[in-house]
Design a protein that fits this description.
heterodimer; A: alpha/beta; Rossmann fold; 4-stranded antiparallel beta sheet; 9 helices; globular; B: about 375 residues; mainly alpha; 2 domains
């Protein structure tokens, strides 16, 4: 069986596009230019990508190709040089809690407890809820990431892995429309990384928040994603190829590894990265 | 005889064994006790203090001898052999009138310290007596709307210390309330930082003496009609102005260099400006702000002595200056006492700040 691939750019050219009511996030002809003393440096150009509701998309590409730039543009933390980004058809205006971000570093406020860190966002998003309700929301997500005993621990007393769990809880607790993950497990050892992937996918199965995740890890990309998006190397990076992953959900690591298509997917991605 | 010796020896051995056992038990009980750390943390500093005092003693003695020889020599050339002999005898007898005036020895300084404490006791007893005597009269005066009579006697050494502490705290608070808010504001805005940078760079290195003169010009005019304590006002404002720069620069730096990740989190959560400042920016710059405040307090304490000396406001600085002008036989040792007191208080103030810093900031590794 040949794996089916879609090249998004061609879709646009040919006018084949997803029905608009299924699209959560729409990147149209996106461009990013950094002015330098030697002239403009074009990081991204003609970047088109549509991400569906309740879809989990992973993005792989070589270091420095502009993945993180693209993600921070979606988050609204990095201004757009050309084209546009729309969430449910509405162009984004700067950052906002409708797009939660899990950063590469846990980025917790070290002077706050785990609970306070999660509450920081919850208080902001649910200003009309009572104090007890907001606490319950925060505690629920901390429980979900397995931090039951650590609500009142200061963030800087937690291990890196536990801090990233708080980061996941914080991102889900604000109930974003889109979850953006910038190599969230890149700094963790492989055991902890596996644990956190399981936690992430478990919560995601329940909440079904559209997720866009950057990763360097081909196995992680396949295990988590509905589609793996491959970016070409910069400058002028764009979407090179898209690989739909057609494993049943919920997935287990074991079932994925034992699936007959797994190595086909893996080979496809590695072939792309090596060319 | 021989037998008894061996018995003694075996007893000794037994005792040694028991001691060893006790020691090993002790070790088990508190595994943290460790001879090496004990040596390093207690014995070595103690030894260095003794060494310091020893060197000081030897040095003072050498200086004393040089000065004494010079005096005798001078008497010899000016007035002849008889006068020189008399001078040598006088110095040897310890008579106050002819003692060489030089660096006092540790013993003399210790003696002066005791004298100062005794003096303080006398003065405070005197003060108490004065208070009791005038209590009734003062009540009457207050009810008549007159000012009460206050004690105007000489302040004791301990009183001077408290006056200095009061001045330094007033100056420190002034620096705190000026430098922290301004530091935050200019830290938040690049434009303002550029606008005020020249001002900070120009005024930061200005000497305490010049600040004192500037403050003097202004305060003298402003307090012309009031009977407020202008010496105190002048000295604490000068102290505050000299010392505030470290806090100002550190606060601005701390606020402007908040970790970008935290700022991004604040942006994603769309925190309001006030929330952003109080929940993210200030807590994350607290360690730097406190480093600044620590420097400010130690600078304040250091310049205070010079400023008191010049402004003739009461305190340790004027104590030192008066003793120097006084030229009494124990003046030098009193100056050295003041030196130690100033040093020790400065050290304690720094420790207090360090403790507070460790209490409030998330960065638990701040050290001296």
């Amino acid at each position: 069986m040949e794996t089916e691939t879609i090249t998004i750019k061609d879709n646009h050219v040919n006018g084949i596009s997803f029905p608009s009511d299924r699209i959560m996030l729409d990147l149209k002809d996106l461009k990013k230019v950094y002015p330098t003393p030697k002239g403009d440096y074009v990081v991204l150009e003609h970047l088109n990508l549509q991400i569906l509701k309740e879809e989990f998309v992973t993005i792989i590409g070589h270091s420095g190709c502009g993945k993180t730039t693209m993600l921070s543009m979606i988050a609204g933390l990095n201004p757009i040089s050309g084209g546009d980004i729309a969430v449910l058809g509405n162009p984004i205006q700067g950052p906002g809690p409708d797009r939660g971000v899990i950063f590469q570093a846990p980025s917790l406020m070290p002077w706050m407890t785990a609970l306070q860190n999660v509450l920081l966002g919850v208080n902001r998003v649910f200003p009309h809820a009572s104090k007890a309700q907001r606490k319950d929301i925060a505690k629920y997500y901390l429980h979900k990431v397995g931090l039951d005993g650590a609500f009142d621990k200061k963030a800087n007393e937690l291990s890196q892995g536990m801090q990233q769990r708080v980061g996941i809880a914080r991102a889900f607790a604000i109930k974003p429309k889109v979850l953006l993950l910038d190599e969230p497990f890149g700094m963790l050892d492989s055991l902890t990384r596996g644990e956190l992937q399981d936690i992430l996918i478990e919560i995601w199965n329940k909440e079904k928040i559209t997720a866009v995740m950057i990763t360097h890890d081909v196995d992680e990309a396949i295990f988590l994603a509905d589609r793996v998006v491959m970016m070409t190397s910069g400058p002028r990076a764009k979407i090179g190829d898209v690989l739909p992953i057609k494993f049943e959900r919920p997935r287990t690591r074991k079932s994925v590894l034992e699936h007959e298509d797994y190595y086909k997917y893996r080979k496809h991605l590695i072939d792309f990265l090596e060319h | 005889m021989k037998q008894s010796v061996t018995v003694n020896k075996t007893q000794e051995l037994k005792l040694a064994g028991a001691a060893k056992a006790a020691l090993s038990k002790f070790k088990v009980k508190s595994p943290k006790f460790d001879l090496k750390t004990f040596l390093r943390k207690v014995i070595v500093p103690l030894a260095s203090i003794l060494l310091f005092i020893g060197l000081w003693h030897i040095g003072a003695k050498a200086l004393f001898n040089i000065e004494a020889d010079y005096k005798i020599q001078k008497a010899l050339t000016d007035q002849g052999q008889a006068a020189a002999n008399a001078m040598a005898a006088c110095i040897a007898s310890g008579d106050i009138s002819c003692q060489p005036n030089t660096l006092p020895s540790p013993a003399q300084v210790w003696e002066s310290f005791n004298t100062l404490i005794a003096d303080h006791k006398v003065i405070s007893a005197d003060k108490l007596a004065f208070k009791e005597k005038t209590a009734a009269l003062n009540e009457k005066r207050i009810s008549e709307g007159k000012d009460p009579i206050t004690y105007t006697g000489r302040p004791s050494f301990v009183d001077q210390i408290f006056t200095s502490l009061k001045t330094v705290f007033a100056g420190f608070l002034l620096a705190f309330f000026i430098a922290v808010p301004i530091g935050i504001i200019i830290g938040l805005s690049d434009t303002l930082r550029n606008a005020f940078n020249w001002l900070i760079q120009v005024f930061k290195p200005v000497s305490p003496v010049v600040w004192l003169l500037l403050v003097f010009m202004i305060v003298k005019t402003m307090t012309k009609d009031s009977n407020s304590d202008s010496a105190f006002i002048i000295s604490f404002i000068s102290v505050g102005l000299c010392a505030m720069w470290a806090t100002l620069v550190n606060t601005a730096m701390g606020v402007s260099s908040v970790d970008k990740d935290y700022i991004n989190v604040a942006k994603v959560l769309k925190l309001g400006p006030l929330q952003k400042v109080f929940k993210v920016i200030l807590p994350s710059s607290l360690p730097l702000i406190f480093t600044g405040l620590r420097i400010t307090l130690s600078v304040a304490w250091m310049v205070l002595i010079a400023i008191e000396l010049l402004a003739q406001s009461p305190g340790l600085g004027s104590f030192v200056w008066e003793e120097f002008q006084n030229g009494a036989n124990d003046s030098n040792s009193k100056i050295i006492v003041a030196m130690f007191i100033i040093g020790i208080i400065g050290f304690l103030l720094d420790r207090i700040m360090l403790t507070i810093q460790n209490m409030v900031s998330f960065n638990k590794n701040a050290t001296a």
